[in-house]
Amino acid sequence: MKKLIAFSAAAALLYAFTACSSGKESSITMNEAKTSDDGKTIITVGNFGFYDSAFSDTLGFPQEFKVESRNYMKGDISFDDAARQLDLDMIQGDSPDVLFAPPDKLYNYIRKGAMADMYELMDEYGGLEREDFLPNVLEGLTINGELPAVVDSFFISTAVAKTKYVGEEFTNWTPEQAMQFYCEMPEGMDFLGDEDRSLSFYMLRNPGKGCIDYTNFTCDFSDGSFADTLRFCAEHPFVEGYVPDMSTMSEEEMLEYSGGTKGTDRQLVYRIDISGFNHSLANDAYANLSREDFTFVGLPSSDGNGAKTYTNNISSQPYGILKNSSSKEAAWKLVTQLLRYRKPLEKFAWDDTLGIPVLVSQFNIDYDRSSSYHNSINCDLYLPGEWEEEKAFRITDEVKEKLRDYIFSVKFDIYYPDELSYFIDEECDPVIAGERTPEEAVRILDDRITTFLSERS
């Protein structure tokens, strides 16, 4: 009986918290300000099992406030149970001041109106200005005119093609254009690389996302274009790889073939994951394309957004300040410190986990980094299979500017749940296998994703 009463009370409190999303802030109780024995303000930082690496790295820094952490997912606690506990803490005035959470989970708190507007804190306390951020990042982080959360860095998944095959006018191409180029590419050429033989993953993720309005929690796959793209992928389930007659190949041709299709004209589209303005980017977008001009075709999309931006739990988990916090000035100072911190890069390290920094000043450091750093975009490059020191070259300023301009132009969107992409894969795979029609998959996707969205609206 006591358990039933306790559960009912918790349910009532959670209902009150849900109601606060419509503007009833009285259902959220302000935290009591806390101070340490030496008079410092205590900032509590909550998480669901992961912190941004900048937080861990800066914990030992001398600062005018004291930081305490609270993990809501200790042991075998599920995310749903952890989230319920956080909701109760917010109602009872015992929540963290700062919250780290996976993007789609944090978005739930943003929608509930639980996060403070950091534009107001920026204007009141300084430390950072709007101009300090990459413009597209700040635009993507802004929701209804407010800045409810930030992130230290991010990653981009996109694709390029040599301009001599796909002109600049096909930047961020549509599914229809990608399918046309597939059908018209020269004989013996692969559409994708050796590591990505299936079309569906590349062709369907963005068109599927375009059928979902995650802001208004609706979806519609029924206009025909998604089914047409899915049908094309089913008709071309695997990219036909180039298989040469090894007995007739010269030693030079054997060396070229052993290096895959990189650096050759046997591949049309090159998928690229941008993990920073670093050596890997110079290698993927310049050296592996034999220093030729390239077009950012991106992932096929109908809205001109050919890039996917994302974060990870190690170096770029989003975070924000809860409205409950009675120590917003100190919390904002902590946020500013985390944003301004950048893990020092060792000269001989190859680190692709740092991501693209969201502050212009940090991006400029990566842009200008000395060639003596192995991870620098400015260090020596080699064509595939040509590793002799005398054949080394470096990226040009023109290409660097093109890469920078592209990074600054992509639509920044980190809140779209990965689960939705997995749903699309799961329901489209049977079509590729010939086990259901594209129209059947579309109906299933509409029903499944509508249910998913309604449960979170």
How would you sum up this structure in a few lines?
The protein has 2 domains: 28-151 and 312-340, 3-Layer(aba) Sandwich (D-Maltodextrin-Binding Protein, domain 2); 154-309 and 414-454, D-Maltodextrin-Binding Protein, domain 2 (3-Layer(aba) Sandwich), CATH 3.40.190. With 457 residues, it is an alpha+beta fold. 39% of the residues lie in helices and 10% in strands.
Overview of this structure, please?
The protein is α+β, with helices and mostly antiparallel strands and 457 residues long. The protein has two domains: 153 residues, Periplasmic binding protein-like II (D-Maltodextrin-Binding Protein, domain 2, 3-Layer(aba) Sandwich), CATH 3.40.190; 197 residues, D-Maltodextrin-Binding Protein, domain 2 (3-Layer(aba) Sandwich), CATH 3.40.190. Helix content is 39%, strand content 10%. Strands 4, 7, 8, 9 and 11 form a five-stranded antiparallel sheet that branches. A four-stranded mixed sheet has the order 2-1-3-10, with helices on one face. It has a two-stranded antiparallel ribbon with strand order 5-6.
CATH topology of the largest domain: D-Maltodextrin-Binding Protein, domain 2
Tell me the number of structural domains.
2
- Helical fraction equals 25-40%
Global outline: globular
Radius of gyration: 25 Å
Mean pLDDT: 86
Strand % is 5-15%
Largest sheet: 5 strands, antiparallel
Q: What's the helix-strand series?
A: HEHEHEHHHEHHEEHHEHEEEHEHHHH
Q: Structural class from helices and strands? A: alpha+beta
Got a strand count? Answer: 11
**Top-tier CATH class of the largest domain:** Alpha Beta
CATH architecture of the largest domain: 3-Layer(aba) Sandwich
Tally of alpha and pi helices: 16
Which runs of at least 5 residues are low in confidence (pLDDT < 50)?
A: 1-26
Distance between the termini: 32 Å
